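Chain A, query sequence.
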Amino acid sequence: MTTTDSTTGNGPYTIETPLVLVINKQPQAGLTAHASPEAIDFNATASLSTQGGSGTGAVTYAVTSGETVCAVSGTTLTGIGVGICTVTVTKAGDAAY
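Chain A, predicted structure.
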């Protein structure tokens, strides 16, 4: 910003004013998880994948219920027992999301 002293005509004078902006991250788009096949037998495997989400954050899978029924390693789900298990999918945020 530049201003001129109107009482003396002297100037121009430079005034520096800091401007503080807050830039928020974007909300992530919906993330959909898939297992192929959707049901497995004991000792069988399913491939886990995701679709959607935003940004470049890593996707991770974790068994959050039924740990004696299934196990996950990377994107592979293995039936280690009989019953129902829950796998929670997480997509990490990145610089923008």
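The chain has a mean pLDDT of 88. DSSP finds no helices and eight strands in the chain.
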